[in-house]
Amino acid sequence: MGHNNANRDFLSGGGAKVKKTTTLILGCGDIGKALGHELLEAGHRVVGARRHPQALEGSGLEAVAVDLADPATLPRLPDADTLVYVVSADRFEEEAYRAAYPDGLKAVLQEFAGRDRPPQRVFFVSSTSVYAQRDGELVDEESPAAPSGFSGTLMCEAERALIDHDLPGTVVRFSGIYGPGRDRLIRQVGEGRIAPASPVMYSNRIHRDDCAGALAHLIGLSLAGTPLEPLYLGSDCEPAPLNEVMAWIARQLKVEATENIQSPLRRRASKRCDNARLLESGYRFRYPSFREGYAQVLKAGGFLSEKA
């Protein structure tokens, strides 16, 4: 099944009088805009909320200003059938993470739970960084999440706040997101830097367009009345050693690796994310592995400008 067939089926219904559903995307940045465009195409009304809504000008999305740290701004958010919380912390500090994740999400849940028309479902975009596994273990939705750092700990607190709430909620944990403009790995390889082959360091990733596609797919299922799990892992179909990914990119760029990246890898978790639950829900990846995904980013980003 295509990633947004459920949206189309729900919205087309069987007559022209089907009510247009409203999706409110909180923290509407790169992923939020990509999701918004998918939903617009499927016939939704889409509202993007962020502190500086002028960033949404020209996007085709309705925009509303909100500061999640200021509860007085929350009542201006419109009622919605679906809420998508895809907020990013301002900086990598505990205070910023607490404000963006558990505190911000709890404030939004409190605001919408008290409304006459609460949302049918709330989606919270989380991260596979909540897993502490670092020896190449396979992890899925049932694997223990026992993060040691503040970022994963606060993310887990936010997840729990949603799952335990009276409003129906689903958490989607994305692995390393890449795509247009998210090309740090390509630039490292372009400089001749590559991860060592040993010890094997597994990495997991998902293309930005599959982040949007998976969310649109789950929203469509929710609106169609299909029961959803409380948690999904959003990662592509091939966890791969980082060395293998970078060596493949190097071949596309026709560059020689001259330097091993060392220190960041010691801090990196090595695990393999299992996306079986998302696949079983009917989602089909546009970029099932790093090869298809990075081929798109290399082409779109002009990295392959020279003819072979």
TrEMBL record:
Keywords for the protein's UniProt record, in alphabetical order: Oxidoreductase
One Pfam match, given by its short name, reads: Epimerase
Write the Enzyme Commission number(s) for this entry.
1.1.1.290
Q: Where are the transmembrane segments?
A: none
InterPro entries of this UniProt entry? Epimerase_deHydtase, NAD(P)-bd_dom_sf, NAD(P)-dependent_oxidoreduct
From the UniProt record, which GO molecular function terms apply? 4-phosphoerythronate dehydrogenase activity
Please report the stretch or stretches of sequence annotated as the NAD-dependent epimerase/dehydratase domain: 24-182
Name of the protein described by the UniProt record: SDR family oxidoreductase
